[in-house]
């Protein structure tokens, strides 16, 4: 497209990077000096880009500017945010509050979501028989053996961590935030387990230390949601986000990539939907087939498509480019224990996956929000 106000001879260079390169080139040659006319030309170039590419280039410029503010990464990472706020890396200690899940105990369903492990997707969480203080002390000791650490996130990961009477939850949460080095309380739960009394408690805790609530949405598609036996509908998710945000609580959403039966279009529809929700973080999780799950029997009886590493990385590139740059990325791979992992086995080497992804983003000049449009 072109701008109706521009004649062919006035058509500007196609990208801002090109106009930046022209200025850089002139400056290197000693011919560039910042006078009113060159500055005006640059401003006009910005304006013309918007006309020339119907708004897309100016959005790319915005994305580029944001990319430069995320440290060495091309995406808005949780580590980046935490280092900015706390001045150092903040480490997660995974805790087990000894709860169960309404999708397992028969309240909503039996057996749970089809991908969920017997430990309620909390395979790295602490020992439920130990107190929260003991689990935190143990987590700290393990982390400090490798490096000096001073800041932690107390992360209730296993099962549904708001699914218990409020006095019990209050005791757990208070014990977790009592430790001065615990900066944040992070709670994984379901949208249908955030009743009014729980919200009142979360609000109180959030006034003492920041509370993050993680919601396992996985997909917006009702057919997939019923296949994975998620056990709640999209309205429950939207209500939960609205209630949490009205209290100023940070919301992080889990989305699973490559669920059986979902096309790239389906997955991108979920991502686009989340782009426009009032959420602060996202976990992009590659589907893991774990031993002793319903998904494992499905996979054995009706094998479904599991991407190889390059396919996954290329698709992650598409997701990252399309993701609203304001949303913090908390995860880009899977997080299952290697002894339970049936497929994809390459996902067990998280370091290789992330290094390959970072190289790929650089080679392809991809950054978060590059293809995001309001
Ligand atoms: S809601 Fe969470 S804990 Fe419950 S079955 Fe599903 S994945 Fe497991």
Automatic annotation (TrEMBL):
InterPro entries, sorted: ELP3, Elp3/MiaA/NifB-like_rSAM, Radical_SAM_C, rSAM, rSAM_horseshoe, rSAM_sf, YhcC-like
Keyword terms of this UniProt record: 4Fe-4S, Iron, Iron-sulfur, Metal-binding, S-adenosyl-L-methionine
PANTHER family: HISTONE ACETYLTRANSFERASE-RELATED, PROTEIN YHCC
Name the record gives this protein: Radical SAM core domain-containing protein
Pfam annotation, one family: Radical_SAM_C
Cofactor(s) this protein requires: [4Fe-4S] cluster
UniProt keyword annotation of Methyltransferase present: no
MF GO annotations: 4 iron, 4 sulfur cluster binding; catalytic activity; metal ion binding
Domain Radical SAM core: 85-326
Coiled coil: none
Keyword 4Fe-4S annotated: yes
Recorded superkingdom: Bacteria
């Amino acid at each position: 497209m072109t701008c109706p106000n521009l004649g062919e001879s006035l058509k500007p260079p196609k990208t801002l990077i090109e106009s930046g390169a022209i200025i850089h080139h002139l400056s290197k040659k000693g011919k560039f000096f910042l006078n009113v006319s060159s500055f005006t030309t640059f401003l006009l170039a910005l304006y013309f880009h918007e006309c020339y590419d119907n708004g897309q280039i100016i959005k790319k410029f915005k994305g580029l500017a944001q990319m430069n503010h995320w440290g060495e990464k091309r995406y808005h990472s949780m580590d980046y945010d935490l280092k900015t706020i706390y001045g150092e890396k903040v480490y997660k200690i995974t805790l087990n509050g000894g709860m169960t899940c309404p999708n397992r105990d028969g309240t909503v369903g039996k057996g749970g979501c089809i991908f969920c492990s017997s430990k309620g997707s909390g395979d790295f969480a602490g020992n439920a028989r130990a107190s929260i203080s003991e689990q935190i002390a143990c987590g700290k000791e393990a982390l400090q053996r490798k490096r000096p650490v001073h800041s932690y996130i107390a992360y209730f990961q296993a099962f549904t961590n708001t699914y218990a009477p409020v006095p019990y939850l209050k005791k757990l949460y208070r014990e977790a935030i009592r430790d001065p080095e615990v900066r944040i309380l992070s709670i994984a739960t379901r949208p249908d387990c955030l009743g009014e009394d729980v919200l009142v408690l979360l609000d109180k805790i959030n006034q003492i230390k920041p509370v993050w609530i993680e919601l396992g949405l996985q997909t917006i598609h009702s057919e997939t949601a019923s296949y994975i036996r998620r056990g709640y509908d999209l309205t429950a998710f939207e209500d939960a986000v609205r209630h949490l945000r009205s209290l100023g609580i940070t919301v992080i959403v889990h989305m699973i990539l490559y669920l059986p039966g979902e096309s790239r279009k389906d997955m991108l529809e979920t991502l686009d939907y989340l782009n426009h929700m009032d959420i602060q973080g996202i976990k992009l999780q590659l589907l893991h087939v774990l031993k002793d799950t319903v998904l494992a029997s499905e996979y054995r009886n009706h094998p479904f498509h599991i991407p190889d590493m390059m396919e996954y990385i290329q698709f992650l590139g598409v997701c990252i480019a399309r993701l609203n740059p304001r949303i913090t990325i908390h995860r880009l791979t899977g997080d299952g224990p290697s002894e339970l992992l049936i497929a994809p086995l390459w996902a067990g080497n998280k370091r290789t996956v992330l290094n390959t992804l970072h190289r790929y983003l650089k080679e392809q000049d991809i950054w978060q929000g590059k293809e995001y449009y309001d």
